[in-house]
Amino acid sequence: MKKNRICQLFGIQYPLIQGGMVWASGWRLAAAVSEAGGLGIIGAGSMHPDTLRLHVQKLKAATQKPFAVNLPLLYPEMELLLDLLIEEAVPVVFTSAGNPNLWTSFLKEKGCVVVHVVSSVKFAEKAVAAGVDAIVAEGFEAGGHNGREETTTMTLIPLVRNAIRLPLIAAGGVATGEAMLAVFALGAEGVQVGSRFVASIEASCHQAFKEEVLQAQEGSTELTLKELTPVRLLKNAFYQEIKKEYEKGATPEILAATLGKGRAKKGMFEGDLEEGELEIGQVAALIDTIIPAEQIVREMLSAYNSTLTRLYETGPFDL
How confident is the model at residue 55, as a pLDDT? Predict the structure, then answer.
């Protein structure tokens, strides 16, 4: 792909970025995606500093290709993590779940490329003002933590494209080459893919969780817990417990107590499919295989190319 700003910004072959998903995005997955020509990302949201350092060092030993770390800005050990990223010369940092004004200037002064994840035009404009290098606009179809606005990717991408001039990456509901082409038509220059890479050989989440993703159908997920931090979940026993609390008019404090701590680790990393929090996007309904990450990249690019050719052959409408 010629003159693509996302490829130029990151120094990668294809404008395909792997999502930095908690409990799924360890060094093996990131290395596999980077080696395949995309941008692999380590998800720091589930890692203490020592664990993150180990993953970064193993990733650097596994590939010479560019890579990134996703850093939720609400993380309690932020200063330790930032020092670690600089010490380990992480070239690209994706920030999320917080105010980009806090650390963007610091990271850029240290030579990092900084990308911020947003769910609305308002937050995109704030990220631009903070000085980021690119924006990820994530529709509410996406898995994991999400925006409260419930703006779909199909609507969000053109809205953000009209509001900003920075390189734009689309996320949420993108698991196929056809979807990649669709968001490019709407103004995106790259895609960030999360849920599809959960169902990869290299993803660090539990095999039972991966197999549960394959069983998902239309309507198997729901965005919930907006009073805390919105999250899209598979509808398992834990989800049903949360639903009952809502029916009883639960306060945010009760919801937080029901959620407890370590719920996502229990479900996604330890494989407790009943009591764990199972974060995944709506697009899980389209996923039916667990395959190597390199194959996911190749299949998406092949479908992008074949769909582009088919549309070109169809030609324009006569007016």
Answer: 97
Dihedral sign for Cα 127, 22, 197, 108, please: positive
Half-sphere exposure in the Cβ direction for 3 (13 Å, CA): 0
* Residue-level pLDDT at 148: 82
Decide the pairing of beta strands 144-145 and 231-234. Answer: antiparallel
pLDDT at residue 197 in the model: 98
Computed from CA positions of residues 238, 243, 247, 250, in that sequence, does the dihedral angle turn out positive or negative?
positive
Burial of 151 (0-12, 13-18, 19+ CB in 10 A): buried
What CATH class has 5-204?
alpha beta
- Asked if residues 117 and 68 have their Cβ atoms less than 8 Å apart, the reply is no
Q: What is the pLDDT of residues 223-239, one digit of tens each?
A: 999 988 889 999 999 99
Domain ranges of the chain: 5-204, 207-283
Q: Compute the distance between CA of residue 60 and CA of residue 131 in angstroms, rounded to an integer.
A: 27
Judging by beta carbons within 10 Å of its beta carbon (0-12, 13-18, 19+), is residue 240 exposed, middle or buried?
A: exposed
| pTM beyond cutoff 0.90 | yes
Residue 169, helix vs strand vs coil: strand
Q: What rounded mean pLDDT belongs to the chain?
A: 95
Point out the residues of the chain with pLDDT beneath 70.
1-2
* Alpha-carbon span 100 to 166, nearest angstrom: 15
Contact 237, 274 (CB under 8 A): yes
DSSP-based three-state secondary structure for 289 = coil
What's the rounded Cα separation, in Å, for the pair 227 and 242?
12
The whole-angstrom separation of Cα 285 and Cα 166 is 32
Give residue 78's pLDDT: 85
